[in-house]
Design brief:
The complex is a heterodimer of chains A (577) and B (218). Chain A is an alpha+beta fold and 577 residues long. Among the domains of chain A are: 70 residues, Carboxypeptidase-like, regulatory domain (Immunoglobulin-like, Sandwich), CATH 2.60.40.1120; 168 residues. In chain A, 23% of the residues lie in helices and 23% in strands. Chain A contains 17 helices and 24 strands. The termini of chain A are far apart. With 218 residues, chain B is mainly β. Chain B has a single domain, classed as Sandwich (Immunoglobulin-like). In chain B, the strands form five sheets. Chain B has a five-stranded mixed sheet, with no helix packed on it. In chain B, strands 13-2-15-16 form a four-stranded antiparallel sheet, with no helix packed on it. The longest helix of chain B has 22 residues. Chain B starts with a helix and ends in a 9-residue tail after the last strand. The chains are: A alpha+beta (577), B mainly beta (218). At the A-B interface, helix 16, strand 15 and strand 24 of A face strand 8 and strand 9 of B.
Chain lengths: 577, 218
C-alpha cells in the first residue's frame, strides 16, 4: 500500500514526463516546420536551381598540377579546362544536397574523379599518367565480355559490318579465289595470284590478329581461331587505340598507335574513349580526342597501292590537281584504290568558313541514332552496371555503334534524283539530276567494285518505249540479258564508279592487278551531276513519260555470277516526269 | 439594348456568310489506295486554278522535328509561304534540301531552337537531316491554295477549310472544269478531270496504286 504523499509525488512525476514529451513534440514540430518551409520555399522560388552553384578544385598528379585537363560533373555536357596551377571552377545548377562526382580527364592520363563537398569544393583530383610502354603480349578481350555491361552498344555493333569483317564470304572468296560456296580456283583471288604472299588484308579485316604478334598474315588465323575477338573489328581492338598517326608505308598511309596494359599492372582494363568522365572501377578509362575525329577511321578507310617499280599512270586524265593533292599523293606511282577519308578531307577543306557542314565527321553519320533504336538511351551501360556505375547522359553525347554504311537506309538518304522533260518538236529531252545529298565523301565510296547505276526510260502515251537518239548508255558490264533481271547493258543511263584497269586495259580488275584508274565518275559531296538524254518522238502532240531509276550495285554483274555471290541491287530511288 | 444590337449583327453576319458558302463549289472525296497500309498523307490538288491573293504573313506553317522524324511527313504550302522548323527532339538536327525547287541548309541546331525558310518557287522540296540519314519529309510548294491532304480514311475536301481559314480566304472554288491530281512519294500520281458546280459539293473517288509519283506540274 502507498501513502497519499507518495501518490502525489508520483502524479507530479507523471505530469512532468507528459510535459517533457509535449515540449519535445512541440520542438520537433517547430524545427520540422521550419525545415520543410525552407525547403519548400526554396524549391518554389527556384532560388537553388536558378543560382548556379560553384564548385572549385584542383587537378594534380605526382608531377605537380595538371593544366588543360577537362573537368566536368560526370554526365554533364559542359566542361571546364584547368589553368596552369591545375585549378578549375565549375558552375552547376545541381542541388547542394545532390552527391556530385567531379571528373577530370586528359589525353595521356587515366581519368579520375572526386565527390564534391556541399560547401562547393571538391578534393584534389589526382591523375595518373598512362604507362609508357605498350604491351604487345596483351590478349584482347572478347566482345562477349564487353556485352555484359554494354549490352545495347554490343548489339548494335554485332549487327554491323564491323563485327564480321573476317568471315565475310565476299572477302574470303576474293582472298582465296573461291566462289561463295568455297570452290577453289574461281575468279580472282589474292592468294590464288600470290601463293607465297599473305598480303595485308589482315590489317583491316582481322586487326586484332594483325597486332597480336601472330606470325602469319593469312586470314585463316582468325577464321580457325576459337578467339571470338579475332573475327571482325572488336570493341577492345578499337578502344586500345591511343592515337592515329600518319605513316606512309602503311596501305592507308595512317597507322594506329596502341597502348595495352600488361596484366601485371592489375585487373583493370585500360580503355581509350571519347569520355573524360568515365571513372568507374572496372575500367581504367582514358580520354582520347581521336575517338571524336575522322582520322580514327582513316586507318582502314583509305587504301593506296604502290605500283610495281617502273610502273606509272597518268592521274591527270582522271583527277584534277586539287583532287590529286587532296589524296595526299604526289607522283603517279600510287593508285588511290580507296580514299574515303581523303575524300571527306577534300570536301571539308573546300567548305567556306561558317558553312553548316564544317566539322561534320564520320562518327556524326555512321554512329548516329536510328529510329528503330528509340526511345533514346541515356546510359552507355545496361543492367546491373548501370545501377552501380551508370552515368546519365544526354542522347547527344552517346554514339550508337551501328556503323551503318552501304545499306538501303544509308543509300536512300545519301543520294537523290530529280528528272525533268521537255518536248521540242519531234524530240523529248530528258535531264536527270543525281545529287549526293547526304554523303560526306564521294558516292559510292570504299571498295571499287561498287557502282551506282542511273537507268532512264521514256515511253509515249500508250506505254511504248521511245528510241534514244543521243545520250550516254550503260556499259557491257552493267549486265547483258533481260533488263527485268537487272541487266542494263546498252540501256540509256549512266554509271558512277571508280573503275580500275590492268596493263592490258581490262576493266574492273581487283586492286592487286590494277595499274591505273580508268575513270572515276563518283558523285562528290553535295554536288549534282546532270545527264541528258534525247529520245525520238513520233507524234509531237503526244504526252510522253520519262522514268529514271537510281540503283546501287555492290559488284559488277559478271563477277557476281562468277563468284556465285548474293549481291542484290538496291533501288535507291526513282522518279517520273 | 447592346445585347440586342449584338444579336442583330450576328444574324447579319450569318446571313452574309451562308449564301457565300452555298455559292462556292467544293470537291470532296476519298482516295482508295492499293499497295499501301494507310490512305493518309496523300496530297490532292488542282493543277490549274485561279490563284487568289493570299495573306501569307498571317499563315504559319510548321515542320516539326520529334523522335528523329519530321512532322508532318508531307506539308503542302502555297508558293511564297514561310515554314518554321522547330527542333522538339532530344538531339540536334540539321535540316537541309538540295532539291532544285529550293536549296537551303539550316545548319546543326539544338533542341528548343527553331529556324525558318521561305519557299518562293512551286515544286517538290525533299527535306533531309544531315545528322540522321533516315529522316525525310516533303514540302510541296503549290501554285494555288486548292489542295488538301487526306486523313486516315483517305478523305479530303478542296478547298481545305482549315487552310482557307489560316490564309484568310473565304471564297471557295469557282464553277468550272479542273484537273484533280494526287501526289504521294510511294504512289503513282493519278489525274482526273472534274466539273465543279456553281453550288454544292462534288464528290470524287480516286483510286491510286503503288509506284512512283510524277512531278507536281508538268
Amino acid at each position: 500500500m502507498s501513502g497519499p504523499d507518495e501518490t502525489v509525488t508520483r502524479e507530479k512525476g507523471a505530469k512532468r514526463d507528459r510535459l517533457a514529451v509535449l515540449v519535445a513534440l512541440l520542438c520537433a514540430a517547430i524545427f520540422g516546420g521550419v525545415y520543410f518551409w525552407s525547403v519548400a520555399g526554396n524549391a518554389q522560388t527556384g532560388s537553388v536551381h536558378d543560382t548556379p552553384r560553384r564548385i572549385r578544385g584542383r587537378v594534380v598528379s605526382r608531377y605537380g598540377p595538371v593544366a588543360n585537363a577537362r573537368v566536368r560533373i560526370a554526365g554533364d555536357e559542359k566542361y571546364a579546362l584547368t589553368d596552369r596551377q591545375g585549378r578549375y571552377e565549375l558552375a552547376t545548377a545541381h542541388l547542394p544536397a545532390q552527391s556530385l562526382k567531379v571528373t577530370a580527364g586528359k589525353d595521356g592520363w587515366f581519368n579520375n574523379g572526386h565527390l564534391a563537398y556541399p560547401v562547393g569544393r571538391a578534393g584534389d583530383i589526382v591523375l595518373n599518367a598512362l604507362p609508357y610502354h605498350d604491351d604487345p603480349a596483351y590478349r584482347f578481350i572478347s566482345p562477349v565480355t564487353c556485352a555484359r555491361c554494354h549490352n545495347k552498344l554490343a548489339q548494335y555493333w554485332n549487327r554491323s559490318k564491323m563485327a564480321h569483317t573476317t568471315s565475310n564470304p565476299k572477302v574470303l572468296s576474293m582472298y582465296y579465289g573461291t566462289d561463295a560456296t568455297g570452290r577453289r580456283g574461281i575468279g580472282p583471288g589474292y592468294r590464288r595470284d600470290n601463293p607465297n604472299d599473305g598480303g595485308n588484308c589482315i590489317v583491316c579485316h582481322a586487326p586484332s590478329v594483325a597486332v597480336s604478334n601472330w606470325p602469319q598474315a593469312d586470314l585463316k588465323a582468325a577464321l580457325w581461331s576459337p578467339r571470338t575477338e579475332w573475327d571482325g573489328i572488336s570493341c577492345d581492338y578499337c578502344h586500345k587505340v591511343r592515337k592515329v598517326i600518319e605513316k606512309r608505308d602503311r596501305p592507308s598511309h595512317m597507322a594506329a598507335v596502341f597502348k595495352r596494359q600488361a596484366a601485371a599492372r592489375g585487373n583493370s582494363i585500360l580503355v581509350f574513349g571519347p569520355y573524360d568522365d568515365v571513372v568507374n572501377a572496372p575500367m581504367a578509362a582514358s580520354y582520347s580526342p581521336v575517338f571524336d575525329q575522322a582520322r580514327f577511321c582513316a586507318t582502314c578507310h583509305n587504301h593506296f597501292r604502290k605500283l610495281p617499280a617502273g610502273t606509272r599512270w597518268d592521274h591527270r586524265k582522271v583527277y584534277t590537281d586539287a583532287e590529286w593533292k587532296g589524296f595526299g599523293l604526289q607522283a603517279g606511282d600510287t593508285l588511290p584504290v580507296q580514299s574515303t577519308y581523303q575524300e571527306w578531307k577534300l570536301w571539308q577543306s573546300s567548305l567556306p568558313a561558317g558553312d553548316a557542314n564544317r566539322g561534320k565527321k564520320c562518327q556524326d553519320c555512321h554512329m548516329s541514332w536510328r529510329k528503330e533504336m528509340l526511345p533514346y538511351d541515356h546510359f552507355v551501360v545496361d543492367g546491373m552496371a548501370r545501377n552501380m556505375w551508370g552515368t546519365r547522359r544526354s542522347p547527344r553525347n552517346i554514339r550508337p555503334h551501328h556503323f551503318d554504311g552501304g545499306t538501303a537506309t544509308q543509300l536512300k538518304t545519301a543520294l537523290s534524283l530529280e528528272i525533268e522533260g521537255q518536248v521540242l518538236g519531234k524530240k523529248l529531252i530528258v535531264k536527270a539530276f543525281v545529287t549526293n545529298t547526304n554523303g560526306g565523301h564521294w558516292v559510292p565510296t570504299g571498295e571499287t567494285l561498287r557502282s551506282i547505276l542511273l537507268v532512264v526510260k521514256a515511253t509515249d502515251s500508250k506505254g511504248r518505249a521511245l528510241k534514244m537518239i543521243a545520250g550516254p548508255r550503260l556499259p557491257a558490264w552493267a549486265g547483258r540479258g533481260d533488263p527485268a533481271a537487272g541487266n542494263y547493258a546498252g540501256l540509256p543511263g549512266a554509271l558512277f564508279a571508280r573503275v580500275l584497269k590492268d596493263r592490258n586495259g581490262n576493266l574492273n580488275v581487283p586492286f592487286w592487278k590494277a595499274t591505273a584508274i580508268a575513270f572515276d565518275s563518283r558523285i562528290r559531296p553535295k554536288k549534282t551531276v546532270t545527264r541528258e538524254f534525247e529520245f525520238a518522238l513520233k507524234n509531237p502532240d503526244d504526252e510522253p513519260t520519262a522514268e529514271a531509276r537510281l540503283i546501287y550495285r555492290p559488284a559488277p554483274r559478271p563477277l557476281v555470277r562468277l563468284k556465285n555471290w548474293k549481291a542484290e541491287d538496291i533501288l535507291i530511288t526513282s522518279n517520273i516526269w | 439594348m447592346r445585347r440586342c444590337i449584338n444579336r442583330i449583327l450576328l444574324a447579319m453576319a450569318l446571313l452574309l456568310y451562308f449564301p457565300m458558302q452555298a455559292a462556292a463549289g467544293t470537291i470532296t472525296g476519298v482516295v482508295k489506295v492499293n499497295g499501301l497500309r494507310s490512305p493518309a498523307d496523300i496530297l490532292v490538288f488542282l493543277t490549274h486554278a485561279p490563284a487568289p491573293v493570299l495573306d501569307l504573313p498571317r499563315a504559319h506553317f510548321v515542320m516539326d522535328q520529334r523522335n528523329l522524324t519530321f512532322l508532318p511527313h508531307i506539308l503542302p504550302i502555297p508558293v511564297g509561304a514561310t515554314v518554321d522548323f522547330p527542333n522538339h527532339d532530344q538531339v540536334a538536327h540539321n535540316v537541309f534540301s538540295l532539291s532544285r525547287t529550293k536549296k537551303f541548309n539550316l545548319g546543326s541546331y539544338k533542341p528548343g531552337m527553331s529556324k525558318s525558310v521561305r519557299f518562293d518557287k512551286p515544286g517538290i522540296v525533299e527535306l533531309r537531316c544531315d545528322v540522321h540519314a533516315e529522316m525525310r519529309a516533303y514540302i510541296l510548294v503549290m501554285k494555288n491554295p486548292y489542295f488538301a491532304v487526306t486523313d486516315a480514311r483517305g478523305r479530303f475536301e478542296i478547298p481545305d477549310p482549315a487552310l482557307f481559314q489560316k490564309l484568310g480566304l473565304t471564297k471557295g472554288l469557282a464553277a468550272g472544269k479542273y484537273a484533280v491530281k494526287t501526289w504521294h512519294e510511294k504512289l503513282k500520281s493519278k489525274k482526273q478531270v472534274v466539273t465543279v458546280p456553281a453550288q454544292g459539293a462534288l464528290s470524287v473517288q480516286l483510286a491510286v496504286k503503288r509506284g512512283r509519283p510524277g512531278v507536281l506540274y508538268k
